[in-house]
Amino acid sequence: MERFDALLARVLDQARSLDIPVSGRIRPHVRVNRRAATRFGCCIRQEDGSFTIELTHRLLEGSDQACLQTLAHEVLHTCPGCRNHGARWRQWAERMNGAFGYRIARTGTCQALGLPDQRSARHLVVCTSCGQTFPRLKASPLVLHPERYRCKCGGELVRKF
User: Residue 20 belongs to what domain range?
Assistant: First the structure.
């Protein structure tokens, strides 16, 4: 937890060094969310106008770079007019990316942050020739109509579950 707090202070210093108008009302302690399965961070505006930054517990095992990038993403949401991922938010993200080597984007992936993907597949499509599997979380067109697709080997695809 102290590690996240120190990284938050570092991100705030970085943003301010670039004259990015981050809020002066960001709480200095990062809250850890142990239930978050698909998101890495969250910026919560409190009733008193302050902001709480929250990170998933999965980042406890992540690199400092992954944590810094996620914190920077959330801190940018405290800038005026940046509660969403609009043009102003993207402008500040690009400035942070260029200055500090981040890859701040609207959404992040486990792979991009160097974290294992712990979500289990809800659907599985399999090649009848080579046996390659195609796990999917959502009912994508591949899952709904595997007969429309072919494996790289040329084999037919079938849905297992």
Answer: 2-113
